[in-house]
Amino acid sequence: MKPFCKVLLLQIILFFPAIYCIAQSSIVVNTQNPTGYIGRQVDLLQDTSNILNLESVRSKSVKFVHSDSEVPNLGLTDANNWLKFTLKNSDDKAITAILNLPNPTIDQVSLYTIHADNSIDSISISGSTKVENRKFKHQFYLFEIALAKN
């Protein structure tokens, strides 16, 4: 990380509803009504120690706080910020959603997708990754998320 700059390491966890039934509502995604801002439907955790990993974040001992802001402002910090949310596809066919984090000043973003069978996919994009080397040739952090039907 950059020694003289405060950097924000944003890590996203995508929990599918079959895995966690915590008092968190699902974000319904379908082709008829595209989803906009999801800030009020995410839970946040700020790791000031910068030592938490996915396994420790998934444990029940870590406490997320529900966001009350449509566009959460996590501020400029050296802490790792974790967001947790659940997506539900209400269509009767599989669809692909795009997660857009429009903040090019974030140093790195990791998206963890936890599937119903408990398998985990992850992808990371760094601010130093050249735009032409990204799946989506864009300055923002864009992630493709495949959602099974229903």
Summary of the model, kept short:
With 150 residues, the protein is mainly β. It is built from one helix and nine strands.
List the SSEs and their pairings.
Blueprint: E1 9-15, E2 26-29, E3 43-47, H1 54-58, E4 65-66, E5 80-89, E6 95-101, E7 108-114, E8 120-126, E9 141-147
Parallel strand pairs: 1-5, 1-7, 2-5
Antiparallel strand pairs: 3-4, 3-5, 6-9, 7-8
Task: Explain what you see.
- This protein has 150 residues and is mostly beta strands.
- Helices cover 3% and strands 37% of the residues.
- The chain has one helix at residues 54-58, and strands at 9-15, 26-29, 43-47, 65-66, 80-89, 95-101, 108-114, 120-126, 141-147.
- The strands form two sheets. Strands 1, 2, 3, 4, 5, 7 and 8 form a seven-stranded mixed β-sheet that branches. A two-stranded antiparallel ribbon has the order 6-9.
- Residues 1-22 have low confidence and may be disordered.
